[in-house]
Amino acid sequence: MVNQAFIDGQNLHMNTKSFGWGVDLARFRVYLREKYQVETAYYFLGAVDDDQQKLYENIQKAGFILTFREHSQSMIGKKKGNVDTDIVFHIMEKIAEKEKFDKVVLVSGDGDYYKMVRYLVGKDKFKKLLAPNRKSMSSLYRAFTPIYTAFLDEPGVKAKIAYKKNRK
pLDDT tens for residues 107-116? Predict the structure, then answer.
């Protein structure tokens, strides 16, 4: 099975940080590969920020393909990192171009992806929605629970992917 993951980086970061924990990206990448057979994982972020080069390096070292939202020069620094349409376009382009992969794993709890998820489920191209936590997942996804949804803050999952300060 060849699955691809699409991570809404800001959604993942904000919806773990606000609950007092963070994701160890290297461990998360292993988790995606082992649990969901993810061969390729795209990590989407907003506009490039020169002060965040270390973060970008860490994302790539962990095994993610880093993808930035396109902004015009005049808008850089003025817009939030909203990558929803970029993720939807990227996934739908892969389907339209008949790229060889089995299913999509989406990491976000944002309801903006609902129509795409519904479409992919209907086409048997959707594996799992991984919401950072139960409280941040849109109620729109209730129809897909529990077959197509999982939560990263579940104790067993969190123990596998959480960043631990004392880890060497």
Answer: 999 999 999 9
Asked if the peptide bond before residue 132 counts as cis, ω within 30 degrees of 0, the response is no
Is-contact 32 68, C-beta < 8 A?
no
Q: What is the pTM (predicted TM-score) of this model?
A: 0.89
Q: Which residues pair with 40 in a beta bridge?
A: 4
User: pLDDT (tens digit, 9 = 90+) per residue, 72-94?
Assistant: 454 445 445 578 999 999 999 99
CA quadruple 151, 156, 159, 161: dihedral, nearest 10:
-40
DSSP, collapsed to helix, strand or coil, labels residue 90 as helix
CA distance 48 to 9: 13
Going by C-alpha positions, the residue among 83, 92, 150, 82 that lies closest to residue 118 is: 92
